[in-house]
Specification:
It contains one helix and 23 strands. By secondary structure, it is mainly beta.
Length: 317
């Protein structure tokens, strides 16, 4: 099966964002970057998608629908050939209309032109309940000369759609792992928090990690960036956006980083995760020790030397 791999991460409050693959003269924007839709059978879902040409060159785009899935715990997604969903025929139920209410599969954008299209999804009684994940891709082509032949270079931009059909059940999940260093000399401190979504629908968890010292005083807090986790998937949570190239696969684990640098003693880190606005909230703890070995060793040596000098001088006197 042919697969096109695309690395995708949340910016603040959004995960699963697909950026434009810019050509030399292609500069376009799309809004929203993610569409989340919940619908009951039967109904007709409508959602607006705005595409804007940001330069002085005209472009023609073909609109395509590409199913996707989450491929690893870092939040990477990949495009697949067919819908592995409760209703594989969902593609035929999606249509796009322009401002004149005409169904379209292609659009033309003139210089600096912006167009808003309406996506209709016809959900009938026979549409199976469950989640459907796909991208709406606006794809163009550009002819470029490549020594002996003329090649076609496709470029475009996409918005991702997370569609949940039917009455959603309760959000369920667990913290699969919460780990960090047991001993360190100073901060910042890196943690890994892997959250498992066992629900039948996608979730957008929120939460934080709090830090208490040996006296039970709260000395720090890290707010977790909201990130979509698809059904039956796991994801490492983070407190900062991923700034790596979005067009390459990022297999690195996301980190939660407590930026406090001056640390001394025993600390307890507690993760608090709300799986949805209505809960439930789950927690997990870990303990770590911070002690500045090198500064302490240097201080000990200095004190020992000074004490030795003092005793020798005192003996001479």
């Amino acid at each position: 099966m042919k697969k096109t791999v695309l690395a995708v991460f949340l910016i603040l409050l959004l995960a699963l964002k697909t950026p434009a693959n810019a050509a030399d003269d292609l500069d376009i924007s799309i809004s929203p970057s993610v569409l989340t839709i919940e619908a009951l059978q039967p109904s007709t879902v409508k959602a607006n998608i705005t595409v804007q040409n940001m330069n002085e060159n005209s472009h023609d785009f073909t609109i395509t629908i590409q199913p996707l899935k989450q491929s690893d715990n870092s939040g990477t997604i990949e495009y697949v050939d067919i819908f592995n969903t409760p209703d594989p025929s969902i593609r035929e139920k999606i249509a796009f209309f322009d401002e004149d209410k005409e169904e379209i599969r292609k659009i033309h954008l003139g210089p600096l032109e912006k167009k808003t299209l309406t996506m209709n999804i016809d959900i009938n009684k026979e549409t199976s309940s469950g989640d459907y994940y796909f991208s709406i891709i606006f794809m163009t082509t550009k002819d470029g000369i490549d020594t002996d032949t003329i090649t076609t270079l496709p470029t475009g931009i996409a918005t991702n759609v997370l569609l949940s059909v039917g009455k959603p059940g309760p959000a369920t999940g667990s913290i699969s792992s919460f780990s960090g260093p047991f001993f360190l000399e100073h901060g910042p401190v890196d943690f890994e928090l892997l959250l498992s979504n066992t629900s039948d629908h996608f979730i957008l968890p929120t939460g934080n990690v709090t830090f208490k010292n040996i006296f039970g005083q709260t000395v720090g807090k890290v707010d977790i960036l909201p990130q979509y986790i698809l059904s039956k998937s796991k994801r490492f949570l983070t407190n900062k956006p991923n700034t790596k190239n979005q067009n390459t696969v990022n297999a690195e684990k996301s980190k939660l980083i407590w930026k406090e640098e001056t640390l001394l003693g025993v600390y307890t880190a507690t993760a608090h995760i709300a799986l949805s606005e209505n809960g439930p909230t789950i927690t997990k703890q870990l303990i770590f020790l911070a002690f500045p070995v090198i500064p302490a060793l240097a201080t000990t040596i200095i004190i020992t030397v000074l004490l030795g000098i003092y005793l020798r001088v005192k003996k001479l006197l």
